[in-house]
Amino acid sequence: xxxxxxxxxxxxxxxxxxxxxxxxxxxxxxxxxxxxxxxxxxxxxxxxxxxxxxxxxxxxxxxxxxxxxxxxxxxxxxxxxxxxxxxxxxxxxxxxxxxxxxxxxxxxxxxxxxxxxxxxxxxxxxxxxxxxxxxxxxxxxxxxxxxxxxxxxxxxxxxxxxxxxxxxxxxxxxxxxxxxxxxxxxxxxxxxxxxxxxxxxxxxxxxxxxxxxxxxxxxxxxxxxxx
Length: 227
Ligand code: FES
Known about the structure:
Layout: H1 2-55, E1 74-79, E2 90-99, E3 104-117, E4 122-125, E5 131-134, E6 139-143, E7 154-156, E8 161-163, E9 170-171, E10 177-178, E11 196-200, E12 207-212
Antiparallel strand pairs: 1-12, 2-3, 3-6, 4-5, 7-8, 8-9, 9-10, 11-12
FE2/S2 (inorganic) cluster is lined by residues 146, 148-151, 164, 166-167, 169, 186-187.
């Protein structure tokens, strides 16, 4: 009888120890699986975050800029055929691919310009104070950003001027500040002129117009590019 009791107690102890072992293995496996599931995405995310800039070195060049004999920073904006002969300014968006170390967004508007085909010679003043004459038929390009505080000017056919809706600055089609009827013109300088490059399209007179687009600091007299 006593021997039977001893055997029973031994079986129970063995069974309990087996159950503990299985339970330990199950918990350990579950823990390991949890770690793998939790840490895996973190490592994958870190990998992408850290190494993405290196993967994206082979980006396409900026949209329509820097190709052939047109320098980097010049954007295809329009063709000469799209401009009226009477010199009425036409507004165009400047489109470029945008990217930084982690993002690439193709063909985004980065600004806008007014282009016009000069109906006659136009004398302009350069940044150093010297004068230059743009010839009839040449393409003139102005930034649409008002130098006062950065609002966007728009062409007004009634006054044949470029007007800023924010604080009523007015500009001639040449970009020069103008004051009509003694009104205050808060802009510290004339509209900012941008350089253009023309590129022939196959045969014919039509040309592509590339603009050396840049932004300038507002609220100051000097025309200083934002780097
Ligand atoms: S932003 Fe144009 S007048 Fe002030």
